Task: structure prediction
Amino acid sequence: MYTETGSQWNVAELEGAAHRHLISPAEELAKLGTSGGRPLFTSADGIHVRDSHGRTLIDGPGGMWCTQVGYGSKPIADAIAAQALRICYNSPWYSISGPAAELARRISSFAPGDLNHVFFTTGGSSAVDSALRFVQFYNNVLGRPTKKKIICRIDGYHGSSHLTAACSGRAGNRPNFDLELDTVSFISAPNIYRHPQGKSEAAFLEFLVAEFEERIAALKPENVGAFLAEPILASGGVIIPPKGYHRRILETCRKHDILYISDEVVTGFGRCGHWFASEEVFDIVPDIITFAKGVTSGYVPLGGFVLSESVLAKISGENAKGSFYTNGYTYSGHPVSCAAALANIGVIEDQDLLAHVREITPYFQEQLAKLRELPLVGDVRGVGLLGCVECATDPTSEAATDFDRQVALRIDRQCYENGLVVRPIGSMCVLSPALIITRPQIDEMVSILRESIVRVQAEIRAEGKF
Ligand code: PMP
Result:
């Protein structure tokens, strides 16, 4: 049934097997085995995926914010095959992986400031989880056992391990899991579109900074270990904070000796036109940056964090009293994943993709912004090749309504019919295409999205609902 080339799929059998045996990461378990609806993608090339019905679609979300260089990259596939044959695995506990060492050197060379020590994991959740565990370790070694609380934001997303899920503030991910931890404290999302009515962006920034200061005071600085934040809240709906937000928050962290962890799992590796967005886009050098996804363009799993030399120095060398560090993933720095990442970095450099993203970003954002003229669209926003169109059927409502969410889902289905995969997140259609996208492809993508919104708009008008 499943052949080596994947060209002779028995689609009905595979769909049946999926419905009977495969649990997806987002599934209504009461309907397990009966719910269909997910497409089966059989092959892909560049920015396109092909489904089991033989339809070719533009992959709007770029997998899940990860297919930077696009599908079908021969240099990456060759690097994976070559490394698998050379040495597919070695234990990071007692040996060095050549590709991991070289990748750590490369990442250190383009990470901001003195961030130059890399710990590899298997994906984004394990990267953020490891960074947070490092904060615990760090403060214990420094003899500050209470300095453990983590401040994070409503609508942030940091992963699916217990600790990272507990730090994720998207309400929809929380039901029926025991995620309330007294070490985790949430502050407001820096959401300009949904922020309290009547406040200017500058006043909203002051509110957010004051809220952070007040929270630190309430928890007491000696109890707060880290602030954890995505530069742009991605899964929470491409939320771009007010100008100066990260800088002000970092200054507050510095004042209270709180580590700033910038979760660049989405924004890293070219998404915003730079290797990392923290310094180049948001003017901060954090203490730790987490990465995953784009580091391999999604070809194989890999994640990690890069840590500041000065932070490490506080618990190493002469200061190393009882600082034996264990965070032992079998696949930490997996040679095949690291070889894929090195090839991926090579492709990004050879094709000058960082410059390409910077050059094409204004065009992408301008085309997307034109959708704002549609009555169904409440807001359009984005940075780099990250964009979001938010539906708002009731402009007087401060929050997205259930109907807004249904409408986004209908637009998503219509887009699929018209040849575009879109990722609906709540009331939002979110796009993060492969970095290789061209102007004509942007035109095609935005035109399908426009047509689909117009169609759904007409339908709900005809139904008397808008
Ligand atoms: N952090 C951020 C900002 C993410 O968007 C994600 C995944 N979407 C994660 C962490 C978790 O990564 P993974 O799914 O690879 O574990």
Notes: The mean pLDDT is 94. The two ends are 47 Å apart (CA to CA). Residues 64, 123-125, 128, 157-160, 230, 234-235, 263, 265-266, 292, 303 surround 4'-deoxy-4'-aminopyridoxal-5'-phosphate (CB under 6 Å). The longest helix spans residues 439-462.
